[in-house]
Design brief:
ten-stranded mixed sheet; UspA; 2 domains; Rossmann fold; UspA domain-containing protein; 10 helices; alpha/beta; 299 residues
Length: 299
């Protein structure tokens, strides 16, 4: 996996600053270019010049991490700007935005809307970074999409331990035996992941293995999210990676997605990987960036 462009959103709150620091750490690890954009859900009357502060923050991150940082001039259309810029990015990093505007209440929070509209992986940072991720928990379900998920996770942090977790869901049938032995499951995902996970600590577990955590059955839509959150705590994972299938707005509003349910439950950061994601090549990504930046000034 080759991460070349990372987009991070900040409103200079403490939570958003954690996101900037995490984005910079990943950019340094992958020698990627980091673009930062100011986006506030509610106008900050105490901030006289957000563009100047964004430029200053970009210079600080560039010096501290030895990376290239571009500050992007903000506009009143934060959501649309982020969606456009994310088309050329390999990763969008932000804090868990929970604001829900009254006039767009039916669309959900800022985070809900971006999860539906953004096509690249999204990293929701909930904790202050203390270094690179040490242990990642990847939620899998014996599908081809899970193979892409494992591949992405394998390349995100090369030195971290990787645990694959299958939360059994009685509502879904994948065509795979639910009692597949752990060693067979690991071989299956190694094959799907093209051996990217070979040579690193890799552990496979299932939700039935977490009965010690008093979660023993799947009874509703949110149960898989609870299973994953319990395993995340037990495994002391500092990042959970989960796939996401984009749903229609009405379906999403009424029922919510598993990823949306997991974000407030997990105590770790959460990376949401769209099932339909295809990483743009370097040339395509640069062309997309030039296109989407038309009318958005770099500072």
């Amino acid at each position: 996996m080759n991460i070349q462009f990372i987009l991070a959103v900040t409103d200079f709150s403490t939570a958003a600053e954690h996101g900037l620091e995490r984005a910079a750490l990943i950019a340094a690890s992958h020698r990627a270019r980091l673009r930062i954009i100011y986006g506030a859900e509610v106008p900050n009357l105490g901030l006289s010049d957000p563009s100047a502060r964004l430029r200053q923050r970009g210079r600080q991150l560039a010096r501290r991490h030895g990376i290239t940082v571009e500050a992007i001039e903000h506009t009143p259309h934060m959501l649309d700007d982020v969606v456009r810029l994310a088309r050329g990015a390999n990763l969008l990093v932000m804090d868990p935005r929970r604001h829900r505007a009254l006039h767009t209440f039916w669309r959900g929070t800022t985070l809900d809307q971006l999860l539906r509209r953004v096509q690249c992986p999204m990293l929701i940072v909930k904790n202050a970074p203390s270094g690179r991720y040490q242990r990642m928990l990847v939620a899998v379900d014996f599908t081809l999409e899970s193979g892409n998920l494992v591949r992405y996770a394998s390349g995100l942090e090369a030195d971290s331990a990787l645990e694959l977790f299958h939360a059994l869901d009685a509502r879904c049938s994948t065509g795979r035996p639910q009692d597949m032995a752990p060693e067979d499951a690991m071989a299956y995902y190694r094959k799907l992941g093209r051996q990217d996970a070979q040579g690193r600590p890799l552990r496979f577990s299932e939700s039935l293995d977490t009965r010690r955590n008093r979660v023993s059955s799947i009874t509703g839509r949110s149960a898989p999210a609870r299973e994953i959150a319990v395993q995340q705590c037990f495994a002391a994972a500092d990042l959970v990676i989960v796939g996401e299938k984009r749903n229609a707005t009405l379906v999403d509003f009424l029922f919510g997605s598993m990823a949306r349910q997991l974000i407030p439950l997990a105590s770790s950061d959460v990376l949401v990987f769209p099932h339909a994601y295809q990483a743009p090549s370097g040339a395509i990504a640069k062309e997309r960036i030039r296109t989407v930046l038309n009318g958005v000034r770099l500072t």
